[in-house]
């Protein structure tokens, strides 16, 4: 009798234990949450693009948790693998966000580079247009000779017997400076000339001083002195007869000879 009672008690106890394991409400909830998270990531094209391995791991963990949920007494294992599945799903989302941020950053950097290129091209276009305009200005003020393109600064830009440039020369000199700045390979030879009023040595000194005065202004305004040659020819090479004041005025001059675009100057006198 006592043995029968003990056997019945054992069966009832086993039934109670089995009945408690079959329910596992926490395991079922964990499994459902993991399944929901996995469903979201596997349907997200960006997640599949950036984190396919994490999605695979999430699916494998979820499948294992699902299999374990059919076994009696495996509630803790179900919750463990459901947690792993949810964690892999979360990691997949994190990796995807990092990938999207990197893509956005790359697009922004590319756009920044494009804008900078557009700005440089705009500036270059503006510089080229300005350079073309200045070249037209220089050309209109100069004459093409066998020595090259020659611009003449007449006697009106200097006081009589003086080598210092008048303020009225500023506009012309600024055009020369801008032209040389926009054409960094070009060089110039500045040649000074005088009439035959003074002595030969005095005229030679004055002609060179006037040429040097123009060169000094160019250097002061930023032109490298290595790009400038200075010559004084005194009363040699007159352009008009010195018999009249008008003729002498034309002979008192400074000529600026421009090189070609490659920096090649024509032969000196």
TrEMBL record:
Pfam families: DUF4398, OmpA. It is found in: Cell outer membrane. GO terms for cellular component: cell outer membrane. Keywords: Membrane. Residues 145-262 form the OmpA-like domain. It comes from the Bacteria. This is Membrane protein. It comes from Pseudomonas trivialis.
């Amino acid at each position: 009798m006592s043995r029968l009672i003990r056997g019945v008690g054992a069966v009832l106890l086993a039934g109670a234990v089995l009945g408690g394991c079959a329910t596992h409400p926490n395991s079922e909830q964990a499994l459902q949450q993991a399944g929901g998270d996995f469903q979201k990531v596997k349907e997200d094209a960006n997640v599949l693009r950036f984190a396919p391995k994490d999605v695979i791991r999430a699916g494998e963990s979820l499948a294992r948790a699902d299999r374990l949920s059919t076994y009696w007494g495996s509630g803790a294992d179900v919750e463990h693998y459901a947690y792993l599945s949810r964690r892999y799903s979360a990691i997949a989302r994190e990796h995807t966000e990092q990938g999207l941020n990197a893509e956005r950053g790359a697009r922004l950097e590319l756009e920044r580079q494009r804008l900078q290129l557009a700005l440089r091209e705009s500036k270059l276009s503006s510089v080229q247009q300005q350079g073309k305009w200045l070249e037209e200005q220089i050309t209109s003020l100069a004459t093409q000779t066998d020595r090259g393109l020659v611009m003449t600064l007449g006697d009106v830009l200097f006081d009589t017997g003086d080598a210092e440039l008048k303020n009225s020369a500023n506009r012309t000199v600024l055009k020369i400076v801008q032209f040389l700045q926009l054409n960094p390979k070009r060089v110039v030879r500045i040649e000074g000339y005088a009439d035959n009023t003074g002595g030969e040595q005095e005229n030679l000194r004055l002609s060179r001083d006037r040429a040097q005065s123009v060169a000094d202004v160019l250097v002061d305004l930023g032109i490298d002195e290595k790009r400038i040659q200075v010559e004084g020819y005194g009363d040699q090479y007159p352009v008009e007869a010195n018999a009249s004041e008008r003729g002498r005025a034309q002979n008192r001059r400074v000529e600026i000879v421009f090189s070609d675009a490659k920096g090649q100057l024509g032969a000196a006198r």
